[in-house]
Amino acid sequence: MATPAPRPPDVREPSRPPALNSGQKLMVFVLSMTLFGLANIITEVLPEGRLGPVELSVSYLAFVPVVMASLFHPLYAALGAPLGEIVFVDLLMGDFSGIGELEGYLQMFLGVYIAGCLVRDPRRRGQLFLAGVTVVFVDKLLSAVVDIGKVMVGVEDAEFVPGLPESILLLEAVGFTTELVISGILFGALPAMALAPRLYGRIEPLLGLAPRDPARPHTLAERGTGAFLLLALVLAFVSMIAAFTSEIFDNFGVWQPDFIDRYGQRFLWIGASAAAIVLAAAVMAVRFVVHSRRERAAQDVRDGEGPR
After folding, report:
1. Which carries the bigger pLDDT value, residue 191 or residue 54?
2. How far apart are CA 17 and CA 73, in angstroms?
3. What are the E-state strand segments in 144-293?
4. Is the overall model pTM greater than 0.90, yes or no?
5. How far is Cα 171 from Cα 166, in angstroms, rounded to an integer?
């Protein structure tokens, strides 16, 4: 009886990107966390301005998580980036909002993850521009929806323009637009377009990782579009509940000592030093692990066993 020929692979279905081991996942997570934490410390000293009721400021340097999610695995970069702001800025700087921090974490996570999956080739500047805008678009859109929801439910007082009760929608729209331009384009898309193509293929080998293959992209909905949309809706709902809970229970879990008021802007060096120490320790640990594995592989070859 003839053996049937093996079934040829379906060339129409793109192959999945290589899986990371636990050490590589942790390395991407820590690197994203520390770099975005350092970036947020820098934004603390950037000047702010106001144009009437609209505040003009840089919320965060969006190009940092965009570059991380574009070069490395977007999931672990997205998990680490918003945690860096919480640990190295909010906690160490004395501006921790308690359970309300969960709102910002989930919103930023969704923005960075979606942006990272949109980049198939980190050398394509058009994809990087879209990713930079997407991070701020998702984050600030969800934040605006939550703010409007808190006013509608009645857990927070609205900031109206005198004589115009409907102005909350106008103020949210104007604020959303300015954030999209300042944080999304000027400090997000444009720097990412300049940095990511130059770093692609150069920084990954230093960390023991292979550069992302455009032919094997990270898909946004690996388990189906419906499953991802459901997950996104659940996370958005949880972020809204966290924001409502923070307001209802009078900022439950808030920790806001007056470090900056007491010691001035020099206290920012505490957070910057902590982030730099964590980053250096993570890089040294990764380099040590990569070197050890290369030595074991070389020893196996010399012993005639072949690489494991």
Report:
1. 191
2. 9
3. 254-255
4. no
5. 9
